[in-house]
Design a protein that fits this description.
- The protein has 344 residues and is of the alpha+beta class.
- α1 packs across α4 and α2 crosses α3.
- The radius of gyration is 26 Å and the shape is elongated.
- The model has no long low-confidence stretch (mean pLDDT 86).
């Protein structure tokens, strides 16, 4: 779509004014923003052309114009000038992370909460497990005479635990045997290698009389491996969406898709790195059709990737939130990578 420089300036002024005010923009206001370089009558004619080309919409007969989804897309691709973060803003973001806690899960959770507070949007924070992730260690910790806590640690720093109840009395000797058995057969193996079939063959080596007794522990280990394979997803700030009048009427629908693992993975489980913006109906899931989603993918060392996503109104302040999201995700990636190195 070819537009001359004047139409582009007018479109940019309308988008940025509407983002700031939430009110339809009239020709007189645009002419004032352009500081008299173009008359209101000329602006009105150019706005009519932009309307015909589908870049602007008119919500009411006598109102000004607002950007269409197509208008936002053109603005994002060609017109937006991101506002770089100051050194002070970068320091504020770094201070928001819990740098004293090396737990990757805690870092992801803290990052989601901090970004939600910082931007006023809903936030998704994830780390996806690569196929190269392996079981590093399994620990069995006795809780009661018949209850054990199973701790699974992977090569990419993921830590999962599950409480398992058994039908026999636990003793230190039995726990030591089971822990040595689990590590001897599972440590060093890829998470995806640990299937029910593999665990069945491992259990067979225990001897038939022990398979049924120890099967709850092996089943719990399998479930922990599946949780690790699926990666981690944290959500924060969904209640922020109620602050936007544009989103209140669709809030229930938005909450459902944000809480759907499948919908979230549909957005983030892609190979493209860097920043991607889905405006309204561009979103792959129709549940996000009345909102915008900004995704930032980042690397965690050589073998893993993560993503942070913002969900907010279509008229979100992209020039501000995109640099913040990018710096947040890059900082999180560095911290997670450093944490994984420390845990090796």
């Amino acid at each position: 779509m070819e537009l001359d420089a004047r139409k582009l300036r007018i479109l940019s002024a309308i988008v940025e004014t509407y983002i700031a005010t939430g009110e339809p923009v009239g020709s007189k206001l645009v002419a004032g923003i352009l500081e008299g370089k173009v008359s209101p009558a000329t602006v009105r004619n150019e706005m009519a052309v932009l309307f015909e080309q589908g870049l602007l919409e008119q919500p009411h007969t006598s109102a000004g114009r607002v950007p269409s989804h197509l208008g936002y897309r053109l603005y994002l691709d060609e017109l937006m000038r991101a506002r770089p973060l100051t050194d002070g803003e970068k320091q504020e973001i770094e201070a928001l992370f819990n740098l004293r806690d090396p737990d990757p899960d805690r870092l992801l959770e803290d990052a989601a909460k901090a970004l939600a507070e910082y931007t006023g949007c809903a936030v998704i924070s994830t780390a996806l497990t690569r196929e190269s992730a392996r079981v590093r260690k399994i620990e069995l910790i006795q809780a009661t005479d018949r209850t054990v806590v199973i701790l699974l640690i992977t090569s990419n720093g993921m830590v999962k635990n599950k409480v398992c109840r058994v039908d026999f009395l636990l003793t230190p000797k039995i726990l030591e045997f089971l822990q040595n058995f689990a590590n001897g057969n599972l440590a060093g193996r890829s998470i995806n290698e640990i299937t029910t079939a593999y665990l069945g063959s491992v259990a067979f080596t225990l001897g038939k009389e022990y398979v049924d007794i120890f099967s709850p522990i092996l089943s719990a280990i399998y479930e922990l491996c599946r949780e690790c394979s699926d990666g981690r997803i944290y959500r924060s700030g969904t209640s922020n969406l109620l602050e936007y009048e544009d989103l209140r009427r669709v809030a229930n629908q938005l909450f459902r898709v944000i809480n759907s693992r499948e919908a979230v993975l549909e957005l983030i489980d892609r190979e493209e790195e860097g920043i991607r913006v889905f405006v309204g109906k561009e979103n792959p899931n129709s549940g996000f059709a009345d909102s915008s989603v900004v995704i930032s993918r980042y690397r965690i060392g050589q073998d893993n990737t993560g993503a942070m996503g913002l969900i907010g109104p279509i008229r979100m302040d992209y020039a501000r939130v995109i640099p913040h999201l990018e710096y947040f995700s890059q900082t999180l990636g560095r911290l997670l990578e450093a944490t994984l190195e420390e845990q090796k």
